[in-house]
Write a structure and sequence with these properties.
It comes from Pontibacter diazotrophicus. This protein has 434 residues and is of the alpha/beta class. The protein has helices spanning 26-32, 48-65, 76-86, 96-100, 114-127, 146-160, 162-175, 181-188, 196-209, 219-241, 247-266, 278-281, 297-304, 345-352, 366-371, 398-401; strands spanning 17-18, 37-40, 69-75, 137-142, 272-275, 310-324, 333-337, 357-360, 374-378, 393-397, 404-411. It has two domains: 1-142 and 271-434, EreA/ChaN-like  fold, CATH 3.40.1660.10; 144-245, no CATH class.
């Protein structure tokens, strides 16, 4: 790890903002100001407090600053069903539990959980008082749903645009020998020809005709993004199968391209809240990721927009518990999160005071000098081994990576949908009710 130049002997307690309830988010709301892009991170994909604090921040942004939608690190087809449900569209399931049960791709707990259910309930209630064009949206940015997106395109275009449906069917025919994404990626390592031309032709066709698809709310957007997932999904799996390819960059470039399409759909005054892991929303240029040639969503959004339009918010904790798997595809389990290692962001914040705190990285703040150097910053993925903790830290210049940081000293595991949480989980009780 690079040189660490944070001095724990300096008293920074006056620079920390208290973080106990929703009112304590006022300094963050002030820092956000008139920004149009607010990116909210998480240090794991299975921590209760990361989801509920993001939900509370999102609620305030929607109510107080007129944000248009939430875009998350999830698959477009499944998230679009949440979008339809919170907008009360005909034909949607009666309960949010039924909607979230559609999330059957591992790791299911990322979105099929009671914390997301509570947020969706609040969004539906909020939207019930708004006109159709003003309802808050909920969208997925990720690239993994290659097959689901192709199937949706064919089914929809057969009704809306039979000519374009023929292009979609040819794309399906191209992928048919492989059966699923993993087989396609493996086959690409042996074949010179891919389905690239077919999916690009499909994307071009759907984009040209998307404005005509108006038989259902947001039908044009849905068709365009599913076509985009098909094109970039093919590229993603092809890159995974190649030597020297950077599938990470393909994925994050896709997420930003999807984000831009969503913002264009919502108009020039649109504002968006993004929920993703810290490794996606924290500027990669302020981490060791840049040494490997990796970029990410936070970096790209900063590069594409004015500084005052973008706010990146990181999250972290000292210890607790988390939902994760021991290997890819393994059953989810609750795991301990041991105390953070020495000289890490989380250990230093704990040593100042074992309390939750909000950090705002203003230019004139003493926090700038203290946290501008390299520090380890914990990043837990869907696969986790607490006994190999040192491998989970990303060298980070904290004040360059984020504009603000929420530190929760001790966190709890997320509540997967199939496990009933203790207490009454309602929109009124998060983030503090479980």
């Amino acid at each position: 790890m690079a040189e660490i130049n944070a001095d724990k002997t300096i008293d920074l307690t006056k620079e920390f903002h208290r973080l106990q309830n929703a009112a304590d988010l006022d300094p963050l709301m002030e820092r956000i100001g008139n920004a149009r892009y607010v990116l909210l991170g998480e240090a794991s994909h299975g921590t209760h407090e990361y989801y509920t604090w993001r939900a509370e921040i999102s609620r305030r942004l929607i109510q107080e600053k007129g944000f248009s939608c939430i875009a998350v690190e999830g698959d477009w087809p499944d998230c679009f069903e949440i979008n339809r449900w919170i907008k009360g569209e005909p034909g949607t399931p009666e309960s949010i539990e039924d909607v979230l049960s559609l999330f059957d791709r591992w790791p299911t707990w990322m979105w099929a959980n009671w914390e997301v259910a509570a947020l969706a309930e609040w969004l539906r209630k909020h939207n019930s008082n708004l006109s159709p064009g003003k309802k808050i949206g909920f969208y997925g940015l990720d690239v993994y749903s290659l097959w689901e997106s192709m199937e949706i395109i064919v089914e929809y275009l057969e009704k809306e645009d039979p000519e374009a449906a023929e292009y979609a069917k040819k794309t399906i025919d191209c992928f048919e020998p492989y059966g699923e994404e993993d087989n396609y990626a493996s086959a690409l390592s042996m074949l010179k020809q891919s389905c690239k031309d077919e999916v690009l032709r499909l994307l071009q066709t759907v984009r040209q005709r998307a404005p005509q698809y108006d038989s259902q709310p947001e039908a044009g957007l849905n068709a365009e993004i599913n076509a985009l997932v098909t094109a970039n999904g093919e590229k993603y799996y092809r890159t995974m199968a190649s030597f020297g390819g950077n599938s990470w960059n393909v994925r994050d470039l896709h997420m930003v391209e999807t984000l831009n399409s969503i913002m264009k759909h919502h108009g020039p005054d649109a504002k968006v809240i993004v929920w993703e892991h810290n490794t996606h929303i924290g500027d990669a240029r302020a981490t060791s990721m840049a040494d490997r040639g990796n970029l990410n969503v936070g970096q790209l959004v900063r590069e594409q927009h004015k500084p005052e339009e973008v706010v990146l918010v990181g999250f972290g904790s000292y210890e607790g518990s988390v939902i994760a798997g021991s290997m890819w595809g393994a059953p989810m389990q609750e795991m301990r999160v041991p105390p953070a290692i020495e000289h890490s962001v989380e250990e230093m914040l704990h040593s100042f005071s074992p309390e939750n705190k909000l950090l705002i990285f203003d230019e004139n703040s003493a926090l700038q000098d203290h946290f501008r150097g390299w520090l380890g910053h914990r990043a837990i993925g869907v696969v986790y081994n607490p006994d190999r903790e040192r491998g989970n830290y990303v060298p980070t210049k904290l004040t360059s990576r984020y504009d603000a940081f929420l530190y929760i000293d001790k966190t709890r595991a997320l509540h997967p949908l199939h496990l009933k949480p203790k207490g009454n989980l309602t929109p009124e009780t998060y983030p503090f009710g479980i």
